Amino acid sequence: MTDSLRQAALDYHALPTPGKLSVELTTPAETQEDLSLAYSPGVAEPVREIAKDPEAAYRYTGKGNLVAVISNGTAILGLGNLGPLASKPVMEGKSLLFKRFADINSVDIEVEAPSPERFIETVAAIANTFGGINLEDIKAPECFQIEEALIQRCSVPIFHDDQHGTAIVTVAGMLNALEIQGKNIEDARIVCLGAGAAATACCKLLLCAGAKKEQITMLDSRGVIHSGRSDINAYKGEWARDTEMRTLDDAIEGADVFLGVSGPDLLSADQLAHMADKPVVFACSNPNPEIAPELAHATRDDLIMATGRSDYPNQVNNVLCFPFIFRGALDVRATSINEHMKLAAIEAIRKLAREEVPEEVRAGYGGVEMAFGPSYILPKPTDPRLLPEVAAAVAKAAVDSGAARLPYPEHYPLKPL
Ligand SMILES: NC(=O)C1=CN([C@@H]2O[C@H](COP(=O)(O)OP(=O)(O)OC[C@H]3O[C@@H](n4cnc5c(N)ncnc54)[C@H](OP(=O)(O)O)[C@@H]3O)[C@@H](O)[C@H]2O)C=CC1
Ligand SMILES: CC(=O)C(=O)O
Ligand SMILES: [Mg+2]
């Protein structure tokens, strides 16, 4: 990162007031009468209603439009385990995105928990105050245990964004990219660098989209995950292949797809050069991708290149999913975010990339041309159609699959914000 971008990023977070969020009132609080309603004695009435019927919380409080973004800071972007407090700018950022893109109120919560059990206890104890919980930047394998336990214990949707948000956007982008390259997902040889939260969920959803397990080679920091390894947990074990391949050099030879969800600068130009013709390279590590786009494009001109960043074409980032999937889930009061809802989100995101791009979106990206093709495989997060399209698809899937507690909303499709 250049010095000027670094300083601009620090200034952005410090000014005009520290941080990126504030709380605003939705009701008047000026007069004696206002205060008698907002606080004592009036506030006692909704208290009594909620005590009689917990569902009344959706009528008398902000619960139904409130999502907590919760982290323990163990896998902050690709920066590693830097602790809960250091994760706060990212969590505030996710809350900003919830509000900006889906008008969902969101607070960030960073939990100092010495064990997964303590984290689970903490989140389970507060979950019911929110309409949903977005877990963020929790490393594998603990993230799997944490999410599973919270889904069991909580009555509101629990969604580990680094797993499912990332997987939804990755699959949407991958299907489009492979189509542009003239390839089928069923035949694609896929190398996934990283075997953590994002990698595991992406590869599972790629299988749902038609990828073949025997065509996926997953690597962790010690190399290829193969059946001879005794140092892998059960989650990684699911991806173990009977193979002679041991290193990224071995795995990348002739591969159609490189999916990077690991760390910075781990794919070399030489390795990229050994991929098949017309490869797809998703270097999704943030903030620094597995290979810099400049180096990738200098190495070969037949690839489709994507990163997790906003400042390059083809941003493969869960921001394209989590605000909108939660919007749909909250609006039908879904109890969970299930596979049907995820698949519906994939299709909605994927289809939008084929539509003509609104002028206002292009203007926000320096006026560059955007049309379905190698440099435009996914819509931009600022595309105002994402909200109505994805939320509607997700809400419908929730209703159809039995996850919804309310009918499909009469006010849908939503108007763009
Ligand atoms: N663009 C996007 O939307 C998203 C991008 N990401 C990015 O994906 C990355 C991983 O995040 P997440 O899954 O949450 O984190 P996890 O901590 O759960 O997983 C990290 C994985 O990366 C592996 N890894 C680390 N260094 C290397 C290496 N040198 N070679 C191969 N593998 C390596 C780890 O290996 P080991 O198991 O051996 O420790 C681990 O399997 C981050 O960079 C993050 O920014 C994540 C979510 C969304
Ligand atoms: C984008 C994101 O969630 C991550 O890099 O962790
Ligand atoms: Mg994350």
From TrEMBL:
Domain of life the protein comes from: Bacteria
Keyword vocabulary terms for this entry: Metal-binding, Oxidoreductase
Cofactor: how bound: Divalent metal cations. Prefers magnesium or manganese.
Transmembrane segments: none
Top class in the EC scheme: oxidoreductase
Keyword Metal-binding carried by entry: yes
CDD domains documented for this protein: NAD_bind_2_malic_enz
UniProt binding sites for (S)-malate: N286, N317
Catalytic reaction list: oxaloacetate + H(+) = pyruvate + CO2; (S)-malate + NADP(+) = pyruvate + CO2 + NADPH
Chain ranges of the Malic enzyme N-terminal domain: 18-151
Entry EC no(s): 1.1.1.40
UniProt KW Oxidoreductase keyword: yes
Residue sites binding a divalent metal cation per the record: E136, D137, D162
InterPro entries: Aminoacid_DH-like_N_sf, Malate_Decarboxylase, Malic_enzyme_CS, Malic_N_dom, Malic_N_dom_sf, Malic_NAD-bd, Malic_NAD-bd_bact_type, Malic_OxRdtase
Domain Malic enzyme NAD-binding: 163-399
GO MF term list: malate dehydrogenase (decarboxylating) (NADP+) activity; metal ion binding; NAD binding
Cofactor (UniProt): Mn(2+); Mg(2+)
Active site: Y39 (proton donor), K94 (proton acceptor)
Family, as annotated: Belongs to the malic enzymes family.
Protein's name according to its UniProt entry: NADP-dependent malic enzyme
